[in-house]
Amino acid sequence: MIPNSTYSVNSSYVTDTLFVGRSGVGNAFLAFSLAVVMVFSVCGNLAVIVAIFTSRILREELSNRLTINLAITDLSNGLVVIFSSLFSVIADSWRFGPVYCDLICAINYCLIITSMLTLCFISCDRFQAITYPLQYINRMKPIHIYLMISYAWFQGIVFSAVPSALGWVEYDYWEAICAIQWQKEQKQAVYYVVVAFILCFLLPGLILIFNYYLIIKQVRTKVSCPGSPISAKSYSTSSKAIRSLLIVVIAYFVCMTPFSVTKLMKVTIAQETVLNSHFNSIASIVAFISSAVNPLIYGIFRKDFRRAYKRIFVSIWGKKERVHNIQTSLQDYSS
C-alpha cells in the first residue's frame, strides 16, 4: 500500500514511489489501538485530576500536586500527541504541514521529559515524607512543589525546542508521529542525545532509584525500631502508597523502553533496518500506553483513589438517572 502523500520512509515531503507502507488491516489495527489508548488516557487522567480536587483527603496531600502535574502531562499527551498520531494514521499521511509537525514533535518530547522529571521529584518528596515524618511539613512546602513542577516544564521546553529549531524534525511514517530524524546532522545529534540522555533520563532515573531504595530501607528500619514515629498502621498506609508509586515508575520504564531502544538504534545504525517497519509502530503505541496506565494503577493499589473514583462514577450516573426520571415523568404527564 502506497501512502496518500509524497514522502520517503521518514519524510512527508520527499517523493519515493517505491516505498510500501502499512496494509489496510495494519492501518486499521494501529488506528484502533491509538483510539483506545487515547480514550483511556484522556478519561483516566481527567478522573485523577477530578478525584484529587473533589476529595479533601487527596487534595490536602501535598505530593498529589505532583500527581496532578503528571496527570496533566499524560492528559495533554492524549489530547494533542496521540490525537495527531491517530489522525495521521487514518489519513495514512501527515496532513497538518511542517510547522505543526515541528510543534507536535516539541510537545511530545516536552511531555516525555516533564513526566520523567515529575516522577523523579515525586520520589524526592516521598523520601522527605518517610525519612523525616515529623519535620516533613517544614522541609517540604507548597512553594517547593511548585518550583519542582516549574523546573520540570522548563527543562522539558528547553530540550524539546532544540530539534525543531535546528530542523531535525520530520514526519516518521512508522512511528506515526513527527519525530527527530537523527541522521540529518549526525555529529550535532550525537551531542544532543548524550546531553539530553544524561540530564533528562539517566540522572533523574538514578535519583529516582536511589530515593526509593532509601525509602524502602527507612520504612523497614523505623518499623522494626521500638518507639518509632511510624506505627504499624502508618507503615501499612505508607507501604501501599510507595508500592503504587513504584509500579507507576516501573510501568513508565517498561512502556518507554522499546521507544528509547528504537531512538538509540537510529543514532547508532543505518536507517535501512527493521526500524522502518511495524516494530516502530508498536514501540510508539507502547510508549503512548504510559499515559494511560497511571489512573488504573492508582485505582487498583490505593483505596483513597478508589473511593474518589467511585464518588465520581456515582455522581455522573446519579445525574443521568435523575435526568432519565425527569424525562420519563414529563413523557407520562404529556401522555
TrEMBL record:
Main location per the UniProt record: membrane
Family: Belongs to the G-protein coupled receptor 1 family.
Gene3D superfamilies: Rhodopsin 7-helix transmembrane proteins (1.20.1070.10)
A GO term from the CC aspect: plasma membrane
Subcellular location: Cell membrane
Record-level Gene Ontology MF annotations: G protein-coupled receptor activity
Keyword Electron transport belongs to the record: no
InterPro entries: GPCR_Rhodpsn, GPCR_Rhodpsn_7TM
Protein keywords: Cell membrane, G-protein coupled receptor, Membrane, Receptor, Transducer, Transmembrane, Transmembrane helix
Listed name of the protein: G-protein coupled receptors family 1 profile domain-containing protein
Membrane-traversing stretches: 28-54, 66-91, 97-124, 145-169, 189-214, 241-261, 281-301
